[in-house]
Amino acid sequence: MLEEVFKGAKSESFIYEIKFARSKPQDTGNSGITASLGVYGDIIAIGCAFPKAPTGFMQLTPVGPFMGDHYSRENVLRYRQMFLQDKFSLIGYGLHFPSPINSSRVSMINHMIPRVILKISRAKIESVTVAPIIEGRSIKAIVQSYSITSSDKNPLTMPISIGGRFYLNRPAISEITEAGIIAYTSHKNKIYYEKEEDVIICENPEIGAKMFIKPQLPFSLVEVDKPITATHLVNFFARFLLKLSPKKTEEIRIIYSPEEKDLQMISKLHTERILEETANYWDEVLEIDPEIVKNNALTNLDDHIIKRNLAYTVGCCLYEENDTTSLIADHVILPASWNRDSFYMAIAMLEYPASYKKARKILTEHVRKYLNWLFEKAQKSDGSWGRSHLITGEVKDDVFQLDQQFYPLLLAVLYCKVVLNNSILEKYIDNIRQAINLVELYKHPHFALYATKETPADDLVSYPYQFSAHVIAWTTFYMLGEYLKEIDPELASFCEERATEIKEAVMEKMVATHPELGRELYVYTTDLVGNCEFLHDANDLPTILAPYFGFCDTDDPIWRNTVEFAFSKENPAYYPGSFGGLGSRHAPAKWTLGDVQELLAYNLIGSERHVEKIRKKLRGDIMVDGLFPETIDPETGILSTRAWFAWPGAAFVWALTSWRFAEVGYY
């Protein structure tokens, strides 16, 4: 039984029963393939990298395509909500039983393997769903393992079906501020059963994508639906009769894979080995150095949230290909890459204080391969990184955002700082020169300030010069000036000089007195000729981190005033209410990223009372599985825009585990 398999598991976190108000699908993955499960353990999405698809990603889901107006916020949110519907709205993939579900209990083994226990009339069903990691290698497959136990005194014959509602294509990528609609190639799907191989195949012939579904049963199939080709969602099932003796258990397994070789390999391995190796892998990678636990007074819930969010980043938002790795915003709604989001995801991995040397190497290697992806695969439009990229490297949204140009350069320096060698900077010095030359085209003719077309919230700027982007610009130039001295002395000298000029220009042109508060603040945006905007957004982490990066001191009165303003009702992006906090006009609501900012701010200030208050608030922000959503309604606490969002979780991990934060040190 599966119960026996997990006796040695180090961590099983109780998540919820289906009455929980802020529920969402449970996610698992292994850096190559992902799965999301509904409340009864049925799979509602399987995703994986697939270069032939228009987005470089393929998804099998019962939700179907995103149709209608891509520029309509209401339409986008309506489509996203479909992934959160219950069993009666989505016919997911797995076993389907004849009796109603009486109860459902979900937990998470080692923060990455969903476990579901169902009770129906006369039987108990336990399932675990795992993305296998065998001998440290990710296998492109999803395995559903079931234990079905009779609770009846008499022999039981139960008709069970395997299948669901099928749609295989590229994911929708539904954005609130769409800037690059990608046309669907084809909606045509073929679903059929191949008897000789005993496998169900869902195929999208136009893009050459397939998903193989192999049931491993104690009894033969008695009926299979006829093959069907359709351009819409279609139900397809195979059926068998399960015969159970009183109080006895039968084991059933279903394997999903886009690759025949991985399907065949996993089908030959025992369930016990698959589960134990995968659980042990996550246990080792996620274990935190005891000193960090002690220094930061981490509770059991903190421990789960930290490990769950890091596991989600590594397992579901990271896709390896040869010596490159892409990092995506989330694996269901927006499987695309933003340099900004990915920077904080990478830093969480890079500075994670794993207990095991092997685990630290795994995490830093992910960052190295991500830097390879940034400099080698991520394409540039007119020399600049786009607002976002597909995992193939192709530009998704072709809009110039200033901060997105600096994050890759800063990450390269921080990687060198952590691994104690400058190999990445040496390898990509030409790319770094090109990036700096491109940014210089956006410099004001008289000041060392740079124009941008959008804010870090992906919205058009009111005025072209944005403050938080200049904190990242200053930090990047300052650190390049230090780390390039031996690699390129001339460029190092330029960077040092530019950092000094940026600081001077910011203090002259980006500080103004708030008309109502009567205090000096760092402005949000300005045109440099007297017009400015007072605002602070949940996406503007560099403003809060300015002392951490060394841009200013924590006792800088202008920074202190800006922080106080950021988390007050005077800020147009602050949303009061029982669940309120810092948000964004991009999606008007409280953003969990805003609460992470508040934690970072008062950690830097050194207010222990305020830090503990915000930590408690963040514990209440999580979804049922410990992940953070994008936004929460400030009055009701209900999810507003998006259940999946890796950035706030990664920033939370960084905030509570970084050695530098533990020591309150600066770069």
Secondary structure elements and their pairing?
Elements: H1 2-5, E1 12-17, E2 26-29, E3 33-37, E4 43-49, E5 57-60, H2 73-82, E6 94-96, E7 103-109, E8 113-120, E9 123-130, E10 133-134, E11 137-138, E12 142-150, E13 156-166, E14 168-169, E15 189-194, E16 199-204, E17 209-216, E18 223-224, E19 228-230, E20 234-244, E21 249-257, H3 260-267, H4 271-286, H5 290-295, H6 300-316, E22 318-321, E23 324-327, H7 339-350, H8 357-377, E24 380-381, E25 384-385, E26 388-389, E27 395-397, H9 402-419, H10 423-427, H11 429-440, E28 465-466, H12 467-483, H13 489-509, E29 511-513, E30 520-522, E31 525-526, E32 532-533, H14 541-544, H15 546-549, H16 557-566, E33 574-575, E34 581-584, E35 587-591, H17 592-605, H18 608-619, E36 631-632, H19 646-657, H20 659-662
Antiparallel strand pairs: 1-7, 2-3, 3-4, 4-5, 5-14, 6-13, 7-8, 8-9, 9-12, 10-11, 12-21, 13-20, 15-16, 15-19, 16-17, 17-21, 18-20, 22-23, 24-25, 26-27, 28-31, 29-30, 31-32, 33-34, 34-35, 35-36
